[in-house]
Amino acid sequence: MYLYQEKANKSKDVEYLGQFLTNVNKVLPEVKVNARLEQIVEQEAKDLAEQKIPHLLNKVIFNEFVGNPLDFHKSEFHEHTYDIHLVFAGKETYIYQLRSLDEKAKVEADPEPAHDTIFAYDLENFKVTSLEQGEGVIINPNIIHFAGFQVSDSNWIKKCVVKIDQRYAQLFGLA
After folding, report:
1. pLDDT digits over 100-111, tens only?
2. Which residues have C-beta within 8 Å of that of residue 105, sequence separation ≥ 6?
3. Measured between alpha carbons, how far is 27 from 100 in angstroms, rounded to an integer?
4. How far is CA 68 from CA 61, 62, 63, 71, 132, in A?
5. Can you name the residues that pair with 66 across neighbouring β-strands?
6. Tens of pLDDT, residues 128-155
7. From 29, 59, 89, 145, which residue has the greatest number of CB atoms within 10 Å?
């Protein structure tokens, strides 16, 4: 992913998994794409054609940004999506919570249902961790988290997030 991001000069972009694999083959023809990824793309296309899913679900998001100051006000979780965060440059701080969401918590669904994101506000008891260049984390569905926080002033972060719907998690080796 890092080689592709560098060679294709991806700074802020979203590619669905099939598009990403096609682009990797064009930009890095010497790289052999994992057969599991190709199986996910094939199964997802079949599911879309058979109307088992409303739209493409699995994607890769490339991003570069200056991290924000640590803030515990807003967090998020996904009901059906695994997030795989990979840091290419800089150091990024994450907040997360492993316990269940309190029934009284203030939540708000993302207005775009395809994002499978529910925002939660003013929760307590977050844990904090940081990832450095070359490190990553897998965040399972329903784990409350938020990323993009800086470790120091003017902390430039370059990363990607791979989003895999739980229906395809076993093919990806996540479940």
Report:
1. 888 889 999 999
2. 120, 121, 122, 123
3. 42
4. 18, 17, 14, 8, 16
5. 156
6. 999 999 999 999 999 999 999 988 766 8
7. 145
